[in-house]
Amino acid sequence: VQARANEGRAAEFPPPLPLERTRDTGLRHLDGTISMARAEPDTATHHFFICIGDQPELDFGGRRNPDGQGFAAFGRVIRGMELIRQIHSSPADGQLLAPPVQIQRAVRVA
Q1: CATH number at residue 58
Q2: How many distinct structural domains can be found in the chain?
Q3: Full-prediction pTM beyond 0.85?
Q4: 10, 26, 31, 41 — which has fewest CB within 10 A?
Q5: 81 domain-assigned
Q6: Rounded mean pLDDT for each run of 10 residues along the chain, 110 residues in total
């Protein structure tokens, strides 16, 4: 399931982030992993995704991105994967949910 920040607040977005490869972080794209979406290395901005099921092809050396660099995993869903699975099975228009689903709350836990 991929999401993005509110495009209406683009002026608040940080510059693109350097790619933190799973080879270096030791993190893996497992069920519930939260990771940065990107096109090329060092281009991640405000799009992220949540893995449903284990997705090793998203790790460094995987084939999901032609450059083989993988995607930057940075967190995991602690509670609410049942809701993420529900969202994943929601009606869509192409790759966009119809109607869109808005994230109401996300928190950082240590």
Answers
A1: 2.40.100.10
A2: 1
A3: yes
A4: 26
A5: yes
A6: 86 91 98 96 94 98 95 95 94 87 83
